[in-house]
Amino acid sequence: MILSEPHRRIAVLHTGGTIGMRRTPRGFAPYEDFPAVLAKALEPLAAGLPLFDISAFATPIDSSEATPADWLALAVALRDLWADYDGFVVLHGTDTMAFSAAALSFMLRDLDKPVVLTGAQIAMAVEGSDGLGNVVSALHFAAQPVLREVCIAFDGLLLRGNRATKVSTRRVAAFACPDFEPLGRIVDGVPVLEAGLLLQRAAGAPVFDLAPAASGLVASLRFVPGLAPAAFDACLEAAPRAIILECYGSGNVPSLNGATGAFLAKARERGIAVIARTQVFHGGTSPGAYAAGSLLTDHGVIDGGDMTFEASYAKLCHLAAQNSDARAIAAAFARNWAGERS
User: 224 by DSSP, 3-state: which?
Assistant: First the structure.
């Protein structure tokens, strides 16, 4: 599906990241006025682009320092601009871009306009940067009226935000969706969308579910050969409202001479929601398919399906900030809110 984009106005919001950095004697540092730098770089291409306005957060966010509070601030900024624009481009650091995209997809639902995150592996000030090309692609995608969800545009591909994960620290093709096809791509400079994959908007106004943000509510624990049972105690001592277990294969875990079962029982007693997901890049979980996974189902662990770690974490953060009841968190987590799971 190819659609024209005349007279559509896009808000470009720069939050920070490699794309907006320049070389200094002390290493890369943010431009003092990156919106002006970007506007100048886009000027020769303006005739082929939708209309756009560029603004920036007063203090750039180093994406490796991003917290749920930053997700909320970004969601609030988008909400406040919502009525004035036809689409949105968010410039973001790549390290936690997939976390932010997933979080936004849960806070901003049933959308009538697109939100497209992008950034760069190579700063725009450096020769060979992918930054300007990514911004141009994102502008084209953000001007598509049939696109009504949170996405990531990178290296010519459009990915559902809550299905994407960062797969390379070096290649310009930095993101991929393990269990979902791209929503679109740039073909000969033109955005082409896969209409059958796009979210269909529900009737009514967009939902801006902007609950207060909090950190420390979700913990994760990755099984490794020879895991020390003391890791279970440390996880419980953090007193999270939810725990993500990163399991082997399709949802298998070692018994560790009974320590795993004891840990799961304690988590249940303390009202902690426990989610199981696979460490494997593709395929998702099916706890109980093997005897080694039945331990999870026996203790009421929730199947994370084919959700990415980023989407699982962001969704649990969103839910745990609003509810301390493990059963309510589990029930809400299992529902498909914004195309995050099959």
Answer: coil
